[in-house]
């Protein structure tokens, strides 16, 4: 364990002189002391020192030097890393036909994520639109929103790190053109290959797809069959071309490629052939097992964990966790489910460090973020402080690059 020095010695031997109040003021250090540090494979009582946005020292023991924040045994963990969230869309369109000012929506989204301990987010933006069917509001938006996110990121207007995640919808009309609007300068981090054609993947059950579409888009049942036929036609016309274009675009961007809603072993085999590393929300045990066979990490939803099952009737995340098939949690559409889900996993596994691993170290590893996701000297000081009461985590504070974000 390289995180605390001289790891083979008893923990009591790691206590060292911490800076005095005068030292702290001169160097503007942040010292979190008497904390339960959540390391990748264990939790230990100790202190952590931050300077200029980096972790510069760690030590074990309960000592609280002058100038340090006494954490009173609270957990201190790496900041949470969110790989797939639709939360921004909720702020942009809080009600049907309501288009909220985009920069205000981005700021609100950013603040909400910071408030639940997320310090890095991959904002999921759909690419691939349906423009010829007015019954569904499925227009283009990704490029314009990406410009606003990137501009606000560069101006320092945001509290946490924002990366781009392009959700490539193959059952659409404009995917190739929309992917072409992005380049390497956008630093797209993840591209997910998505196919929402009804009757497979997330919506194997057509009845559930009907309830979802008619409820969300106020479509009456009489037009549903015609709409399904329209989508089948899109898939037959564009599906293969769009799939190939998405894989090529991910390579062009240098982005991690993800699959979405894999259901069968055959689908996973195809994913593996494309070089996919992440599987978002596999819908069956068989698909999750096949992903592990191919070295693909399974991402399951925090809401699925918290609710005890999938809202679409697919496999329960906790069932996969009990079989050792859950690697990463995504908050999906409820940001607060990320920390709560990690603590629930820790309780289920009897290992809080392992639970937190699914929202810190694991997503950092698979998204190629090598400078964060662990408490380790030299890494970015993206940190959270929380305590757990009756199984429910309560965030006390968060820091992004050493600066207070919540």
TrEMBL record:
Q: Which InterPro entries match?
A: Metal-dep_hydrolase_composite, Metal_Hydrolase, Metallo-dep_Hydrolase, PhnM
What is the protein name for this chain?
Answer: Alpha-D-ribose 1-methylphosphonate 5-triphosphate diphosphatase
What NCBIfam families does the record tag this protein with? phosphono_phnM, PRK15446.1-5, PRK15446.2-6
What Gene3D superfamilies is this protein classified in? Urease, subunit C, domain 1 (2.30.40.10)
């Amino acid at each position: 364990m390289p995180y605390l020095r001289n790891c083979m010695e008893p923990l009591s031997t790691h206590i060292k002189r911490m800076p005095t109040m005068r030292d702290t003021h001169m160097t503007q250090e942040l010292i979190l002391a008497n904390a339960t540090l959540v390391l990748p494979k264990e939790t230990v009582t100790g202190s952590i020192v931050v300077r200029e946005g980096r972790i510069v020292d760690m030590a074990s023991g309960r000592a609280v030097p002058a100038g340090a924040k006494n954490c009173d045994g609270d957990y201190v963990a790496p900041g949470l890393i969110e790989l797939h969230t639709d939360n921004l869309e909720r702020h942009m369109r809080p009600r049907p036909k309501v288009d909220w000012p985009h920069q205000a929506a981005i700021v609100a989204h950013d603040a909400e994520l910071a408030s639940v301990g997320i310090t890095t987010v991959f904002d999921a933006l759909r690419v691939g639109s349906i423009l010829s069917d007015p019954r569904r509001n499925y227009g283009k938006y990704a490029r314009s929103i990406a410009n606003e996110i990137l501009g606000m990121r560069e101006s320092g207007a945001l509290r946490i790190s924002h990366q781009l995640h392009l959700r490539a919808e193959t059952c659409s009309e404009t995917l190739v053109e929309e992917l072409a609007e992005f380049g390497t300068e956008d630093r797209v981090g993840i591209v997910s290959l998505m196919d929402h054609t009804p009757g497979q993947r997330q919506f194997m059950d057509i009845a559930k797809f009907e309830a979802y579409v008619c409820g969300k888009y106020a479509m009456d049942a009489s037009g549903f069959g015609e709409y399904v036929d329209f989508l089948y036609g899109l898939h037959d016309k564009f599906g293969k071309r769009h799939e190939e274009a998405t894989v090529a675009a991910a390579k062009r961007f240098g982005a991690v490629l993800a699959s979405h809603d894999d259901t069968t072993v055959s689908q996973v085999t195809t994913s593996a052939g494309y070089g996919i590393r992440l599987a978002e929300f596999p819908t069956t045990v068989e698909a999750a097992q096949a992903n592990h066979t191919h070295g693909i990490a399974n991402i399951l939803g925090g809401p699925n964990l918290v609710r005890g099952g999938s809202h679409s009737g697919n496999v329960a995340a906790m069932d996969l966790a009990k079989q050792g098939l859950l690697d990463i949690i995504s908050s999906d559409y409820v940001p607060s489910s990320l920390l709560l889900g990690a603590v629930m996993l820790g309780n289920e596994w009897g290992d809080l460090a392992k639970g937190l691993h699914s929202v810190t170290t694991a997503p950092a590893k698979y998204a190629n973020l090598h400078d964060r996701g662990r408490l380790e000297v030299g890494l970015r000081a993206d940190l959270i402080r929380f305590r757990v009461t009756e199984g429910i985590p309560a965030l006390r504070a968060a820091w992004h690059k050493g600066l207070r974000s919540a």
